[in-house]
Amino acid sequence: MINYPNGKQIDYKEKRIKTKNEISVSSANRGMNLEHEINLSNLYYSENNICLVTKRPTPIKVVKVDYTKGAIITSAFFEKQSTTDYNGVYKGRYLDFEAKSTISKTSFPLSNISFHQINHLKKVIEHGGIAFFIISFSTHNKVFMLDASYIINYYENSIKKSIPYDVVCEVGTEIKQSINPRLCWVDALNEIYYK
Amino acid sequence: MINYPNGKQIDYKEKRIKTKNEISVSSANRGMNLEHEINLSNLYYSENNICLVTKRPTPIKVVKVDYTKGAIITSAFFEKQSTTDYNGVYKGRYLDFEAKSTISKTSFPLSNISFHQINHLKKVIEHGGIAFFIISFSTHNKVFMLDASYIINYYENSIKKSIPYDVVCEVGTEIKQSINPRLCWVDALNEIYYK
Q1: What's the gap in Å between the CA of A88 and the closest CA on chain B?
Q2: Looking at the complex, does the CB of residue B73 fall below 8 Å from at least one CB of chain A?
Q3: Quick one: which of A55, A77, A125, A65 has its CA closest to B56?
Q4: Percent of chain B at pLDDT above 90?
Q5: Is there a contact between B172 and B142 (Cβ–Cβ < 8 Å)?
Q6: What residues are paired with B136 via a beta bridge?
Q7: Count of CB atoms within 10 A of residue A194's CB?
Q8: Greater pLDDT, B31 or B116
Q9: Which of A191, B162, B166, B170 could bridge B109 with an S-S bond, Cβ 3.0-4.6 Å?
Q10: Touching check for B96 and chain A: CB below 8 Å?
Q11: Are A154 and A163 in contact (CB under 8 A)?
């Protein structure tokens, strides 16, 4: 324990423990939900005026509402998103992307992606927007950005039902992971679309 | 009844009745929900590859889900949209807008717009996106497009709590109404941002 002239005490032991905690939190993050990590990163990007992306709420089909208790929904069910989960604006351009995670070590299964999402992303590209996928291989603790046109082409023309991990490593751009933002996906975006 | 060489008959009486029906449908439309009209127009624009805009689903806070019956939501409530209702892409640019309707003949009440929506639209403008409002005066059967910066300025700096109808007519651009698309809002967009 050292006493500084300003009266503050620094307990190095305490500090060391804090660092340990941080490391253990960081390890815990690995298993963290990809969506949650992207949402946190988007919050960072928005607060720092780098990029504005919002997540579309999960569509829910409301069946019954109890108005006697102030509009409480008493019966409803989840609907499939017919578009992607995220869209937004970066340097005036329209961005649209879908985030998917797989526990597979060897490949990314295309069954994860719906026909509607492929159609939506094709339209985004037609209208001059930037369309991509963020794909997480949770077992490898690696996250990649892939231009949507690559996946669309694979989806429509390949007889394979999944993209091998090696191919994703080769054609994709790895998204760096840090404390804040958790996923530096805007760096990958710059690398792919603004070089 | 006239018989034409191609064998087709044209019954002018019938035709006249059809036109009457069309007019009555058009009158009925006046009371139609603004959101529904915009959704139909967006569908037209999407199918004709003019513009791609999607409506954000209403955010719903799910409290209880019954998994025994296949994920039926048994308790939930509506949340306020913290952003706007619509966003999309036009000629590569990011679009973001909110649609509001008023039955008032004399002014558009700003209480219709939330603080969160104003903040969101300010951010859209900062990032180079196009931000606007579609405002319907249902009693007048007139719909206008107003650049968001005008409303933001009014919201933040005016002591008035509503924008007079005359002012909206003057600073806004009227959105033409037709059969399909119901609201030709892309024409107004071109007039304001692409002239």
Answers
A1: 7
A2: yes
A3: A55
A4: 75
A5: no
A6: B101, B143
A7: 11
A8: B116
A9: B162
A10: yes
A11: yes
B60-66/A173-174 β-pairing: unpaired
Please write the tens of the pLDDT for every residue from A127-158.
999 999 999 999 999 999 999 999 999 999 98
Chains A, B: CB contacts under 8 A, how many? 110
The number of helix segments (H) and strand segments (E) in chain A equals 6, 12
Beta-ladder partners of A164: A107
CA angle, residues B78, A115, A147, in degrees to nearest 5: 95
Q: Looking at the complex, does the CB of residue B47 fall below 8 Å from at least one CB of chain A?
A: no
Cβ-defined contact of B76 to A60 (cutoff 8 Å) = yes
Determine whether A163 is exposed, middle or buried from the number of CB atoms within 10 Å of its CB (0-12, 13-18, 19+). buried
CA distance B124 to chain A (A): 7
A49 in reach of chain B (CB within 8 A): yes
B58: chain A residues, CB-CB within 8 Å: 57, 60
Residue A134 near residue A100 (C-beta atoms within 8 A): yes
Yes or no, beta carbons of A129 and B92 under 8 Å apart: yes
Provide, as residue numbers in chain A, all residues whose Cβ is less than 8 Å from the Cβ of B129: 52, 89, 92, 94
Give which of A32, A57, A34, A53 is closest to A44, Cα–Cα.
A53
Write the CB contacts of A22 (distance below 8 Å, at least 6 apart in sequence).
Answer: none
pLDDT above 60: residue A22 = no
Instruction: Write down the pTM of the prediction.
Output: 0.81
Q: Tokens for A33?
A: 């939900």
**φ and ψ at residue A31, rounded to 5 degrees:** -90, 0
| Whole-number Å distance between alpha carbons of B101 and B114 | 14
Q: Do B49 and A126 make contact, defined as CB atoms within 8 angstroms? A: yes
Question: Is the confidence at residue A80, as pLDDT, over 90?
Answer: no
Structure tokens at A47: 């607060």
Rounded CA gap, A79 and A125, in Å?
Answer: 25
**CB-based contact, A90 to chain B, within 8 Å:** yes
